[in-house]
From TrEMBL:
<dbReference type="GO" id="GO:0000266">
    <property type="term" value="P:mitochondrial fission"/>
</dbReference>
<keyword id="KW-0802">TPR repeat</keyword>
<keyword id="KW-1000">Mitochondrion outer membrane</keyword>
<dbReference type="GO" id="GO:0005741">
    <property type="term" value="C:mitochondrial outer membrane"/>
</dbReference>
<dbReference type="Pfam" id="PF14852">
    <property type="entry name" value="Fis1_TPR_N"/>
</dbReference>
<feature type="transmembrane region" description="Helical">
    <location>
        <begin position="127"/>
        <end position="148"/>
    </location>
</feature>
<keyword id="KW-0496">Mitochondrion</keyword>
<dbReference type="GO" id="GO:0005778">
    <property type="term" value="C:peroxisomal membrane"/>
</dbReference>
<protein>
    <recommendedName>
        <fullName>Mitochondrial fission 1 protein</fullName>
    </recommendedName>
</protein>
<dbReference type="InterPro" id="IPR019734">
    <property type="entry name" value="TPR_rpt"/>
</dbReference>
<comment type="function">
    <text>Has a role in mitochondrial fission.</text>
</comment>
<dbReference type="GO" id="GO:0016559">
    <property type="term" value="P:peroxisome fission"/>
</dbReference>
<dbReference type="GO" id="GO:0000422">
    <property type="term" value="P:autophagy of mitochondrion"/>
</dbReference>
<feature type="repeat" description="TPR">
    <location>
        <begin position="75"/>
        <end position="108"/>
    </location>
</feature>
<dbReference type="InterPro" id="IPR011990">
    <property type="entry name" value="TPR-like_helical_dom_sf"/>
</dbReference>
<dbReference type="InterPro" id="IPR028061">
    <property type="entry name" value="Fis1_TPR_C"/>
</dbReference>
<keyword id="KW-0472">Membrane</keyword>
């Protein structure tokens, strides 16, 4: 599948409407135990794009199945596994799959874009974490000073 048919990582922030996801789910369920790989892929893709973590997790699970069973879909799966883990906040896993794709295709614009999103989120969350922990340390210091002052 050529790169122009896959969205850039910025599309990771867009989800399908409930009706669109329902169409994919019905097709997946209709095919049952004989589900075609494309139908399974479409459903996994739709779930990954969801705003609901449980649906994202199911999408990642299905994408892992496709990855392990269909060599011809590994490239696409790597990309969407990266997006799925990114959306779930599992940035280490997101990075692993994105880097695997970049090892196969160093000039892949989607993977580069996704890596930038991951790096930005990790950086932002790291700064938030530092601010929160700094605030907690300050509160502990104030509490310790108050206790020390009372004990005198």
């Amino acid at each position: 599948m050529s790169e122009r048919y896959l969205p850039y990582a910025a599309d990771a922030e867009q989800s399908l409407s409930p009706d669109e996801l329902l169409v994919l789910r019905r097709q997946y369920e209709r095919e049952g135990s004989q589900v075609r790989v494309q139908t399974k892929f479409n459903y996994a893709w739709g779930l990954i794009k969801s705003t609901k973590k449980a649906e994202q997790q199911m999408g990642v699970y299905l994408m892992h199945e496709i990855y392990s069973e269909h060599d011809e879909r590994k490239r696409e799966c790597l990309y969407y596994l990266g997006i799925g883990y990114y959306k779930m906040g599992e940035y280490g896993n997101a990075r692993v799959y994105t880097e695997q794709l970049l090892a196969l295709e160093p000039d892949n614009k989607q993977a580069k874009s996704l890596r930038e999103l991951i790096d930005a989120r990790v950086s932002r969350d790291g700064m938030i974490g530092l601010a929160v922990s700094g605030g907690a340390i300050a509160l502990l210091g104030i509490a310790a000073a108050a206790i020390f002052k009372r004990s005198k």
